[in-house]
Amino acid sequence: MKFKKACLAAASFIVAGTAIATTACSSSTNSGKLVVSTFGLSTKQMRSDVLDPYAKKNNVKVSTQFGDSSTRLTQIEHNPNSTVDVIELAQNNAITGSKKKLFKKLDFSKIKNFKYLSSDQQKLAKQTNTVPYTVNSLGIIYNPKKVQIKDWNDLWSKKLKGKIAVPDFATTFGPAMLYVAGDHANVDVTKDDGKAAFQAMKQLKPNVVKTYAQSSDLSNMFKTGEITVAVVGDYAVGMLKATNPSLKYMVPASGTYANYDNIAILKNSKNADAAYKYIDFRLSKENQKKVAGAKSLNNAPVNSQVELSPAEATNKTYGDIAKRAKTIDFFYVNSHMSSWISQWNKIMNQ
Amino acid sequence: MLNRKNKALTIISLIILALIMLPLILVVITSFNNQSSISLPITGFTLSWYSNIFQQPDFITGFESSLLVALIASFLALIIGVPAVYALTRYNLHHAAWFQSFFLSPTLIPEIVIGFALYQTAVITFKLPVFISLIIGHFLLCLPYVIRLITASMLMMDSHIEEASWVCGCSPKKAFFLIVLPNIKSSIIAAFMMCFINSFNNIPISLFMNGPSLTMLPPAILNYLQNNYDPTVSAISVVLMVFTALMMFLVEKVIGISNITK
Amino acid sequence: MNRKTAVWLLIPAFFGVLVFTFFPLIEIAIPTFQSKAGFFALYTQFLKSSYNWTVIGRTFLIAVLTVIIVLILGLPISLWIGRQKKTVRQVLNLLILFPMLTNAVVRNFAWIIILGRDGIINKLLLSLHLIKAPLNILYTNTSIIIGSVYLFLPIMINTLIGSVAELNIEIEEAAAVLGSSPWHTLFKVIIPQLATSILTGCILVFAGTMTAYTTPQILGGNRHLVMATLIYQQAMTLGNWQNASVIALILIVISALSMWLMKRLSYRLDRRMTNA
Question: Minimal Cα distance from B229: which residue of A?
C-alpha cells in the first residue's frame, strides 16, 4: 500500500507543520517576549544596535515586523488580534493611531529617561500618547557631478526637467513636501487649504520622474541614473550614501520641516512591562548615542544629555538644522488628508 | 509555406526565442560582476554576491518558510482536491459541471483581491494565525491546478478497470488506492509540481498575509531589490533559476514535462 | 454506488472554496454598499474622479496592448515550434517553459537592467549616437507593457503549440497549389483553425495582465498605478479599506465581464466551424 503510506506521510506532515506553526505563533504572546513593529529601512542595524542589545539586557525574546509606517498602522488598526506590543511610527501615523485610540494610555513616570526630552517633545508626547525617540527633517540629496543645488527654489529650475524624485503624499514627508511647495509660492499651506502649494506642485511636475513611496527606491534610481536630485528625509541619507558614495546632502538655509518618530504601546499588549523597558532603552543616553552613528541608524538624538561632535552631527536634525526645522501642523494636515491625497494623485500621479 | 523550413519564419522565431532567453542570461552575467551595482558590461569576476546571500537572514528564513508553505499548501490541495475530482468524475452527480467551475473559480479572482479579502476573513473575522491564513491563501491558489489536471486524467482513465476490480472483490476504498491512484500518478505529480511552483513564487497573497517573524522569499527579494540595488539580487535570482531547472529536470525524468502543461 | 460517499468527498473542497473565496468576497462587498449617501454612492463617487478613470483606462489599455503584442509574437514562433520534429519540439518546449516557471520578481527585475537610464538599451542607443540623452523607458506605461509581454508570452506559446502540432499541413499545401499566397494562407487557413486556442491564450493573457501586481509594482512605480497596485496602495498605505474593496469589486467585474465576452466569442467561432 505504497500510496496509503504516502498519503499518511503527507497528512502527518501537514499536521506537524501546522502544529509547529501554531506553537510558533501562540508562543509569541508568552510573557518573556516582545513583538516590535518598526521601519523597514536598515533592518540589519536595527537588529544589531537596538533589538539584540535590548533583548540581551532585559532577557526578553524579541520578534519583529518590519515595514512602512502607514502599512503597519493599517494592519494594527484593522486586526484586533495582532500580537504586536510596541510600534514605532512616523509622526502623522502616530497622531492618527492615537486619535483612533489604538494605544495604551502611557504612564510617563515609568519611563526614567523621559525627563531628558525637551519640554516641547514632552508636550508632544502627552498630546499624542506616544514617545518621540528621534527627529528627522527634509533635505535635498543630489549628484554634485551633474548639478548644484543651493535652495528649495532650485528644484523648480528648468534644468532639472525629468531628474527629480519627491516623496509621495502618503509617506512620512509627503505633507512636508507640500509645505515646501507652499513656501515656494509664498503662501502658508494652512492659510488657503493648500491651493497655492498645489499650484506650485503642478509647476514642479515636469521635473519629477517619480513620487517615491519608500526612500529605499531612491538608492536604486540614483544608481541606474534615473534621477539626479531627490527630496528626502535625513534618516535615509546614510543608506543612500552607502550605496552611492558620491551623493551630497544639504538642508537649505531658508529652513526645513521636522518629523518625530514615535513609539507607542498597543492597547492589547500583554507585556507592557517589557514595552516600557523598551521605550526607556530607546531613550537611554547610550543607545541614543549609538544609533546616532552614520553607520548605525543615523537617528538624531532627542535625549538632551547626548552630545554629538560636528562630525557625528552631519546629515542629522541636530544643532543648527534642528533650530531651522519648523514643525508641521499634523492636526491640520490630517483633517485635509483625503482631499489632499486625491488632489496630489490628480496632479502628480496622472 | 509556413512549415519549419520557411526561412523568414525560422529567423523571426529564433529572434523571439533569443528575446525570451536574453533577459535571464543577463541576470546570470550580472551576478558575477565585481562592482557593487547591477550593471553591464561587467568589469570583473567574483562569487562574493553568492556568499552574500547567506548573510541575509531574510533570504534564509524566507526560503525556509516559502518552502514549507508551498509544500503544505500543495499537499493540502491534493488531499482535498483529488477526492473531489474522484467524486465528480465517478459518481453521476447532478450539477457536476457546476461544481467543476465552482472549484475553478478562485482563478477568476485577482490574487491581490484574494490576499486582501482573505486577510479580513481569515485573520480578522476568524482570528486565525497569519501562518494558517497564508496556507489557506496558497491552498486556494493550488486547488484549481489539481482540479484541472486530475480531472483530465480521470476522464482519460478507463473506468471499467476500476469496476473490474470491484467485481473481483476489491472494496471501493482498496480499488481507489490500488487501481485509481497508480493510474493517475503522473498527473498527481504534475499537479503537485504546478502547485508547488506557483505557491513558491507567489507575491500578491503573501504581501497581505505578513506578520511578525513571517517572511516569504519573493517579498524578501522584492524588498532587497528596493533597498540595495546590488548583484545579490542577481545571485539569488540565479539560485532560483537553478532551483526551477532542477525541478523541471526531475519532472522530466519522472513523468515527462509535457504532462504539467496539459 | 454510494451517493453519500461522493458528498463526503466533495465537502472539504466545497467548503474550502465557499468559506475562503466567496465568503471573503461578500465580506468585503457588503460595506461598499452601506454608505449613508446611498446604495451605490461609493461607486459613483469613485467613478467621478478623473484620476480613477486614468487608472482604470491604463489597466485596460495595458492589458489590451499586451494581448495584441503577445499574439503577434507568439503566433509565428508557435507555428515554428509546433512543426518541428518531436525531439526538437520537446527541447524548445523546455526553453519556453523555463521562464514560465521562474519567479516573476526575477523576470521583471531583468528588465530594470535592460530598460534603465544606464541600462543596455540606452547605452546602445547612446553609443550609436541615435539619441543624445538617455530615454525614460523604465517606470512608464511602456515598461509595464514590455514586462507584461515578457511575462505572458510563454503562456500564449504554450497554449498554441499543441493545436499547431495537430494542424494538417496538407490543407495548406492544397491552398498553396490553388494559388494562395503564404499571407493569405495564414489568415484564411491557419488562423481560423487555431481560433479556439488563440482565444484561450488571449483570455489567459488578458486576465493575467489585468490583475497582475508584481510587474506594475516593479516596472511602473507609483506614478503609473494600475488597479492591482491601486488596491494595495488604498488598502495598506492609506488604510482606506472601503475604497480598496470598491476597486477590488470593480476589477473583478471588469475582468470577469471581458473574459465572459471573449468566451462567448469563442463558442460562436466554434459553432461556426463545426457547422461549416
Answer: A220
